[in-house]
Amino acid sequence: MQNGRPIIVNLIPSSNPAHPLLKRLPEIGAVFHRDRMNEKEFREVAPHADVLISASNLKVTDEELSHYPALRMVGDFGVGFDGFDVSAIARRGLRACHTPDVLSEDVADLAIGLLLALARSLPAADAFVRAGRWPNENFPLGRRVAGCRLGIAGLGRIGKVVAERARAFRMEVGYTARAPKDVPWQYFETVKDLAAWCDALIVVIPATPETHHLINREVLEALGPKGFLVNIARGALVDTEALIEALERKTIAGAALDVFEHEPHVEAGLLKLGNVVLAPHIGSATVETRDAMAELVMENIRLALNGQPLATPIPGTRKD
Ligand code: NAP
Q: Which UniProt keywords are listed (predicted)?
């Protein structure tokens, strides 16, 4: 506490003053941005911190947590928590929240948008018109998505919304998950079987040690020379080296990626290719959704500071 106000340490880069959560945190407490504190200030503040704020693309390790002995909760501005040491959070008896559901519509929109951009070569079409080539050349034909088989790897909150949208586009839906769901779509035991069946594979599975490079050479081979890959999950799900090789050799037709293994660095091999569409991790990046995510984190912080169970605890952390 500082002057009776909770102390919040924020790990999210503070360079964007319009960040919807960073703007609102002062409503609750005294905010200290990690990237603006020198070591002396950090050593003074950290032992008294009540709340630690981070995001799914940042690391919250056991070592990081050891700086905050008075901590009551950790907030994740995002749904994925692959950067968080969940077992260390649980062992320390901390509450931790994330932002499920509120972003599912936007991420599903981006998945379908990327698939359409890929199938209809929208970035190339835009460049073609701007370059003044339209009067003299024919733009190559694209591929139809209506009637195609869409494989959804991960039929969780986001995957189900992708499936609903795909049905509106009259795609045939198949999926894989850890277990079959009560849905009218075909279930595949493995992602390789799903890839062999579908024309386009959308990946929306959390990054965990088990899912690292789930989309490997074998899966890409199964997807085949007419197959499209869309990754809106995490870069770690895809073996990038194998993907670049498959794209170069045209053993798959194309890929659309919102996430990368070493983001914000994008492998040079991907940047050179024409059969890819690239986005800078913008799945949830709309004004409305980022506001809703901020609101949800704020609600969880208030609950934690009142000693109440969180609205959206990270699975595996305390629920009481
Ligand atoms: P979710 O509701 O937890 O769904 C995850 C799905 O993945 C579930 O269907 C789960 O199967 C399946 N799954 C988990 N491990 C698996 C495995 N080893 N093999 C096969 N399937 C597996 O999560 P969500 O809210 O949909 O979010 C999914 C992920 O999307 C997040 O973790 C995050 O990494 C990513 N994401 C990206 C963006 C972006 O900006 N691009 C934004 C938001 C989220 P069961 O249902 O059988 O357990």
A: NAD, NADP, Oxidoreductase
* Closest-lying ligand 1 atom to the alpha carbon of residue 211: 18
Residues 219 and 167 both lie in one domain: yes
Q: Are residues 44 and 189 in the same domain?
A: no
Ligand 1 centroid from CA 213, angstroms: 14
Q: Which atom of ligand 1 is nearest to the CA of 178?
A: 47
pLDDT in 10s for each residue of the chain, 320 residues: 777 899 999 999 999 878 999 999 999 999 999 999 999 999 999 999 999 999 988 999 999 999 999 999 999 999 999 999 999 999 999 999 999 999 999 999 999 999 999 999 999 999 999 999 999 999 999 999 999 999 999 999 999 999 999 999 999 999 999 999 999 999 999 999 999 999 999 999 999 999 999 999 999 999 999 999 999 999 999 999 999 999 999 999 999 999 999 999 999 999 999 999 999 999 999 999 999 999 999 999 999 999 999 999 999 999 99
Known catalytic residues are: 234, 263, 281
Residues 136 and 249 in one domain: yes
Is 319 inside a domain boundary?
A: no
178 lines ligand 1 (CB under 6 A): yes
DSSP code per residue over the chain: -BTTB-EEEE-S-TT-TT-HHHHHGGGTSEEEEGGG--HHHHHHHGGG-SEEEE-TTS-B-HHHHTT-TT--EEEESSS--TTB-HHHHHHTT-EEE---STTHHHHHHHHHHHHHHHHTTHHHHHHHHHTT-TTT-PPPP----TTPEEEEE--SHHHHHHHHHHHHTT-EEEEE-SS--SSSSEE-SSHHHHHHH-SEEEE-----TTTTT-B-HHHHHHH-TT-EEEE-S-GGGB-HHHHHHHHHTTSSSEEEES--TTTTS--HHHHT-SSEEE--S-TT-SHHHHHHHHHHHHHHHHHHHTTPPPSSBPTTS---
Its domain, for residue 20, covers: 7-100+287-305
